């Protein structure tokens, strides 16, 4: 039975933040949620998060995950003391019980690496270790003459000879649950930091004749911890490059992998092109042959095959059909549903509205709370007046309508199939099908009118 303990009680003082460290994000998700995702993938029977600094805030952020257990560590007396607080929650059924310790501020460890660690453990203990050219600050992996791991010595407690060891403890450890509980209760804090070190269980296991094996991470980003904004930014860059690499591998053309931001999941069809400076958030799916121009932001959107999103467009919770043309400078807000072959041009904002196939709004328009049919042409400057200051109302525009430029449709209002609105119309009542409706003061010309002349002031 697998239990997972995630250490997240530390303060993260160097973040200089009012938010607990593990609630800071990498790729748009909190560090703790990254770790939890890995824990979920391992199908642990129990997941315990050890909280301390900002405990309430951390628990609040994950209230929806009702199966999570939180153990409060107050005060923070070391990693061993932290795991000890979780011990009462660790479940056992005698069969191959194992507890895996993860860090909430080491967010990107891969599931495959953790599986390798659990396999390496066999019946004993396993430590995820790494060879670092500069091991300063880390716990060192001490091996005996036979090359077997016999202890972990913290940097501050290490002798000069031990400090020369370049194999370090990443902090991620798997241990048999029953023994772990016993060892934790036997820890002391007689060391340079007067802390209860989790790492002291290594020596205890060895003294009992248990094997201590190691496994290694597959990539550098997996074991990088975040203690400062600088480290957070560094890890973000490494991770973004990795995410871009995965997209390239899947066949996406990315103009510059160093200028792509993925903060969610991006699902791409074949032959998708993404220009520089685009940000993808939430769940985004791009169909075959989609082209995303420079500096677009797409959040929770789905784009059909062959559609082009031109530069500087902002799409949020919208769906677009195939072979459409969006932007440049288009804004699709939540509930915008654009059918196939639609065109939405510069400075057009669409919110909670459906635009039927082959319909166009090419310049400067606001379409909110509207139902627009097929083959409709919305002229420049058209506005659906959906809000009366209190309530929102719908505008319905049926198929094959032509809305002249600079028209206002005061909702609730309906434009019948095939109707035309003359430019500058303020529509306050329904426009019948197949007719021309126009509301405009008659044009007059005043003959003999003279322009005023500027008076010149005397000095
Ligand atoms: C720890 C390891 C060290 C390893 C290093 C890797 C010990 C004694 N040392 O050192 O061998 O090389 O990590 O980064 O385990 N935490 C708590 N409660 C506490 C103390 C820490 O929850 O009382 C949490 C922190 O929030 C953090 C993690 O445990 O997520 C590690 O704590 P940190 O202080 O960074 O450990 P190090 O001393 O760096
Ligand atoms: Ca650390």
Helix and strand topology:
Layout: E1 2-8, E2 25-26, E3 29-30, H1 31-41, E4 46-51, H2 55-61, E5 69-72, H3 79-86, E6 98-103, H4 111-121, E7 125-131, E8 140-143, E9 149-153, H5 160-163, E10 167-176, H6 177-186, H7 200-207, E11 212-215, H8 229-249, E12 253-254, E13 260-268, E14 273-274, E15 278-286, E16 291-292, E17 297-299, E18 302-303, E19 308-309, E20 314-316, E21 318-320, E22 325-326, E23 330-332, E24 336-338, E25 343-355, E26 360-372, E27 377-378, E28 383-385, E29 395-397, E30 402-403, E31 408-410, E32 413-415, E33 420-421, E34 426-427, E35 436-437
Parallel strand pairs: 1-4, 1-6, 4-5, 7-11, 12-14, 13-15, 14-16, 15-17, 15-18, 16-19, 17-20, 18-21, 19-22, 20-23, 21-24, 22-25, 23-25, 24-25, 25-26, 26-27, 26-29, 27-30, 28-31, 29-32, 30-33, 31-34, 33-35
Antiparallel strand pairs: 2-3, 6-10, 7-10, 8-9
The chain binds uridine-diphosphate-N-acetylglucosamine and calcium ion (CA).
Calcium ion binds next to loops.
General description of the model:
The chain is an alpha/beta fold. It has two domains: 2-223, Spore Coat Polysaccharide Biosynthesis Protein SpsA, Chain A, CATH 3.90.550.10; 229-437, Hexapeptide repeat proteins (UDP N-Acetylglucosamine Acyltransferase, domain 1), CATH 2.160.10. The chain is built from eight helices and 35 strands. The strands form five sheets. It has an eight-stranded parallel β-barrel. A seven-stranded mixed β-sheet has the order 5-4-1-6-10-7-11, with helices on both faces. Strand 8 (140-143) and strand 9 form a beta hairpin. The chain is elongated, with a radius of gyration of 31 Å. The N and C termini lie far apart (97 Å).
């Amino acid at each position: 039975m697998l239990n997972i303990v995630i250490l997240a009680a530390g303060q993260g003082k160097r973040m200089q933040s009012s938010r607990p460290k593990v609630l800071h994000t990498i790729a748009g998700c909190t560090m703790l949620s990254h770790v939890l995702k890995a824990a979920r993938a391992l199908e642990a029977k129990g997941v315990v998060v050890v909280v301390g600094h900002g405990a309430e805030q951390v628990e609040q952020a994950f209230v929806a995950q009702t199966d999570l257990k939180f153990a409060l560590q107050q005060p923070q007396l070391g990693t061993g003391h932290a795991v000890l607080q979780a011990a009462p929650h660790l479940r056992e059924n005698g069969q191959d019980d194992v507890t895996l310790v993860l860090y909430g501020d080491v967010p990107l460890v891969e599931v495959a690496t953790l599986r390798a660690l659990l396999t390496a453990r066999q019946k004993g203990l396993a430590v995820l270790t790494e060879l670092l050219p500069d091991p300063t600050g880390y716990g060192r992996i001490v091996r005996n003459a036979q090359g077997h791991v016999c202890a972990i010595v913290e940097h501050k407690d290490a002798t000069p000879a031990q400090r020369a060891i370049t194999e370090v403890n990443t902090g991620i450890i798997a241990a048999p649950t029953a023994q772990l509980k016993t060892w934790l209760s036997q820890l002391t804090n007689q060391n340079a930091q007067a802390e209860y070190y989790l790492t002291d269980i290594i020596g205890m296991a060895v003294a009992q004749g248990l094997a201590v094996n190691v496994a290694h991470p597959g990539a550098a980003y997996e074991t990088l911890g975040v203690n400062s904004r600088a480290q957070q930014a560094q890890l973000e860059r490494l991770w973004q490059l990795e995410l871009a690499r995965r997209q390239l591998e899947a066949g996406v053309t990315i103009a510059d992998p160093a200028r792509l931001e993925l903060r969610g999941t991006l699902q791409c069809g074949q032959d998708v092109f993404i220009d520089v400076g685009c940000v993808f958030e939430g769940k985004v799916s791009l169909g075959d042959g989609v082209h995303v121009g420079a500096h677009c932001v797409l959040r929770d959107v789905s784009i059909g095959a062959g559609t082009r999103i031109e530069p500087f467009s902002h799409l949020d919770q919208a769906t677009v059909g195939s072979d459409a043309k969006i932007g440049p400078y288009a804004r699709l807000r939540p509930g915008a549903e654009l059918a196939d072959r639609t065109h939405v041009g510069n400075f057009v904002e669409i919110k909670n509205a459906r635009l039927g196939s082959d319909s166009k709004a090419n310049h400067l328009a606001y379409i909110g709370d509207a139902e627009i049919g097929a083959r409709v042409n919305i002229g420049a400057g058209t506005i659906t007046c959906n809000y009366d200051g209190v309530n929102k109302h719908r505008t319905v525009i049926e198929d094959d309508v032509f809305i002249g430029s600079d028209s206002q449709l005061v909702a609730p209002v309906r434009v019948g199939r095939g109707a035309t609105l003359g430019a500058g119309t303020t529509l306050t009542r329904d426009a019948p099908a197949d007719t021309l409706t126009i509301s405009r003061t008659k044009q007059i010309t005043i003959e003999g009118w003279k322009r005023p002349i500027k008076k010149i002031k005397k000095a």
